[in-house]
Each structure stands twice: as structure tokens, then as C-alpha cells.
Design brief:
This protein is α/β, with parallel strands linked by helices and 395 residues long. It is built from 18 helices and seven strands. The chain has helices at 3-9, 18-22, 34-42, 49-55, 63-67, 74-85, 99-109, 139-145, 153-166, 182-186, 190-207, 217-231, 241-247, 277-284, 314-329, 340-350, 364-371, 383-394; strands spanning 132-135, 211-214, 237-240, 259-263, 289-291, 334-337, 360-363. The longest helix is centred in the middle third of the chain and has 18 residues, at 190-207. The model is unreliable at 377-395 (pLDDT under 50).
Length: 395
């Protein structure tokens, strides 16, 4: 999209201010405003340092789009502006020293094959060919980078396979799967995003599969919206794992799990893709498990506070603490997520001294596996992983 078309989109803005009124970053009092960004773009001030910084304050949570009377997709506009106004660079502050973005760019450009399936064990039934691919996402990388209590990205991937096995599916796993490219696209790095997309689409096409199941809402959103906008409509059926399991719920038969849970709607799964019911249907199907909604849920759910591993500052920390407090106010024992990044971001906040009394955080996949007695014993970390994590913390 050319900058002229981006500018034209801003003309539908009615200056009503509803976007700024619901924007979690604007409400943090740090001076950011979606309406101000739109005004600056409309006035053709697209190269100012002030606008560059503002663009990277946006979380892409789409709370603004949910209330915009003109139907302006502000987060999509922000993404395009990042690519147009600052090509090849990021004006935001990268979290973790840009380590994760470096992994993504290596996956985009390196000719080397990865060892993406080292986490499989003999109890997991997978296939080299079939109708259904399980797209694992960056869980193997997250497992090496983050060391929050209870966080088990690779074990969650194993549980996803176990759940699919339970409903009679032996998924195809890609031995050289690449990052979907979501984060690089949202940073404006469209070149490396395209390289990642082309690699993934070619690898999937070579399997002959007709369906791809995702455990990460960001991956699903990227395939369903961003890939198809740039590469054309796909014949693949694209599903979040909660959608597939809800369709096959008669085969699950979970055991009783007394307790109370509340569900955190990921922005990409909810407002971006309109998927609200399947996770709740699965939770309600667990005997003796009570689902209690937070005040802000479904379309009004609050963001976990992070996107593309950028600008993890004061506004984000305030947002995360408020979300954990809201979850705690329900009286729930557990806060259930359906997104690996929400899992990471909320656990990060939970490690803060003001949030230690909050509910236990659990991924939906892990909770369902637990209710079915499918979870294996928690694996001992490899010495190399421990050393790497320890080095990261010391740094």
C-alpha cells in the first residue's frame, strides 16, 4: 500500500475521540493518543521523530477498532505506517535486547535447517504426511529464553499433540518450521516477513495437508489475515486448537477438576479473529470447573500488554498489573490463557512484588491435558538450557 492510500484512510476519522478513550496506552497518562496519530498522518507529518515513537507505543490490541464509528482499523494502519515511515529500522525500544527479533531474522535468511522437533518424545503420535499440520510457532525458542515459574512452552506443545491424539489426529509437524513473521511485520520489517511467509507456505504446500491447527493466536492471525492479503486466498482450513477441540469435544471426556477459573481473551484470538466461544466451551465441559468472567472480557478484554517484543515500559507494566488484579478480583484460582505470549507477559508481571498473590496462570492446552490425565511428568531442563538461562539473568 502506498503512503497516499494510507493518508486517504485517515480521512474517515470523525475526531470523536472514542479510540483514545478506550486505548489502554492512552489511559496510562503517558501522552499517547490514537486520534493524535491519525491527525498527524492526515496532516502528512509522517516522518517526524514524535510520530515514529508514537507508532511503536501502539499494542495493536484493537480496542480502538471495536468502538470506531467509521470502522477504521487503526492497528492495521499503524502496521503499514511502521513499514512506510521507517523502512528497515525500528524506532521503538526492543525488549530483551532484540534477541527474539534476531532469531526471527535468522530464520528468515539462514539457509541452515533447524532442529525443530527435538522436543518430541516416543509417547507422541505424529505423522510425516496427513491432512492436519500442527503449527508449533516459536515455543522452542521461548523455552530457551524465558525462565518464569510454571512456564513450559515446549511441554505445552507436547500437550497440544496429546490433545490432538486424544481426538484421533496424528498431526504433521514441520521439521523446519519458521516463525510466522508476525512480530517482524508489526515492526515494519516487511522484507524478512515476506521471506518467512514464503518459506512456511512452500513447506506446508509440500505436505499436501488441507488443514493447519495453531496453538498461537498470533500465528493464526498472521496466516489468516496477513498471508492472504499479500499472497492471495488460501484453500487451507486454518484453526486455533481450541476451535478444533471444541468441534471434537465429544471425544475428550475430561475428568472432574474442582475449582474456579477466569479466562483471558487474547487480542489476536478475540478482537482480531472473533474467536471467543471455543475456549469457554472447553472450560465449561470440564466437570466441577467453574468459569467466572472478568469485568473486561470478550470484546472488552484488556490486552496482556505486549506485542512484537517492543516497548515493554511503564504503560505496559501498569496494564499487566491491572489485568492481574482484575483476574484476582473474580476469586478464581487460575487465570487461563490461550496464547503463549499472553502466558509469558502475564507471568512476567506476576513475578513483580505487587502481584505475587494473584491467581495461578495456566495455558488452556495444559489445563485440558491435566483434566484428561494426559500431561507427562515435567521434564528436567537440559544443562545447556539452564546455563543459557542463568547467563541471561546475570546479564
Amino acid at each position: 500500500m502506498t503512503m497516499d492510500l494510507v493518508l486517504a484512510e485517515t480521512l474517515v476519522c470523525q475526531e470523536c475521540g472514542r479510540c483514545t478513550g478506550v486505548c489502554p496506552v492512552a489511559r496510562s497518562g503517558l501522552g499517547y493518543s490514537p486520534r493524535k496519530v491519525i491527525r498527524q498522518v492526515g496532516e502528512s507529518r509522517t516522518q517526524s521523530p514524535e510520530l515514529d515513537r508514537a507508532l511503536y507505543s501502539c499494542l495493536g490490541c484493537d480496542r480502538c477498532a471495536a468502538v470506531c464509528p467509521s470502522g477504521l482499523a487503526i492497528s492495521d494502519l499503524i502496521v503499514r505506517l511502521r513499514g512506510e515511515a521507517a523502512p528497515g529500522r525500528c524506532a521503538g525500544t526492543l525488549a530483551h535486547g532484540g534477541l527474539l527479533q534476531s532469531f526471527m531474522r535468522l530464520m528468515a535468511t539462514s539457509p541452515e535447517r533447524q532442529h525443530r522437533l527435538d522436543w518430541l518424545d516416543l509417547s507422541l503420535r505424529v505423522s510425516t504426511s496427513g491432512d492436519t499440520i500442527l503449527f508449533v510457532g516459536c515455543a522452542p525458542y521461548f523455552d530457551r529464553v524465558f525462565d518464569f515459574p510454571g512456564l513450559r512452552p515446549v511441554e505445552t506443545a507436547r500437550n497440544a499433540v496429546r490433545l490432538l491424539n486424544r481426538v484421533g489426529i496424528e498431526p504433521v509437524l514441520l521439521d523446519d518450521e519458521r516463525c510466522c513473521g508476525h512480530d517482524l511485520l508489526w515492526l515494519g520489517d516487511t522484507g524478512n516477513f515476506r521471506l518467512l511467509a514464503e518459506r512456511n507456505l512452500a513447506r506446508i504446500a509440500a505436505t499436501g495437508a488441507r488443514r493447519v491447527v495453531f496453538s498461537c493466536p498470533e500465528c493464526l492471525r498472521t496466516f489468516k489475515l496477513d498471508y492472504q492479503r499479500r499472497f492471495g486466498k488460501s484453500s487451507l482450513e486454518l484453526l486455533h486448537i481450541s476451535e478444533l477441540l471444541a468441534q471434537e469435544s465429544s471425544k475428550l471426556d475430561p475428568g472432574a477438576m474442582p475449582g474456579r477459573v477466569t479466562f483471558h481473551d487474547p487480542c489476536r484470538l478475540g478482537r482480531h479473529l472473533g474467536i471467543y466461544d471455543p475456549p469457554r466451551e472447553l472450560l465449561r465441559a470440564v466437570p466441577e470447573l467453574e468459569l467466572i468472567e472478568m469485568n473486561h472480557s470478550r470484546e472488552r478484554a484488556t490486552c496482556c500488554g505486549g506485542t512484537a517484543w517492543v516497548e515493554c515500559g511503564t504503560a505496559v507494566k501498569c496494564l499487566q498489573s491491572a489485568r492481574l488484579a482484575e483476574a484476582g478480583a473474580t476469586g478464581a484460582d487460575r487465570l487461563v490463557t490461550a496464547c503463549p505470549k499472553c502466558d509469558i507477559h502475564l507471568r512476567c508481571a506476576l513475578c513483580g512484588t505487587d502481584a505475587r498473590t494473584g491467581p495461578e496462570i495456566v495455558n488452556l492446552i495444559d489445563l485440558l491435558a491435566e483434566s484428561l490425565g494426559l500431561s507427562g511428568p515435567e521434564p528436567l531442563p537440559e544443562p545447556a538450557v539452564l546455563a543459557r538461562k542463568g547467563g541471561s539473568q546475570d546479564a
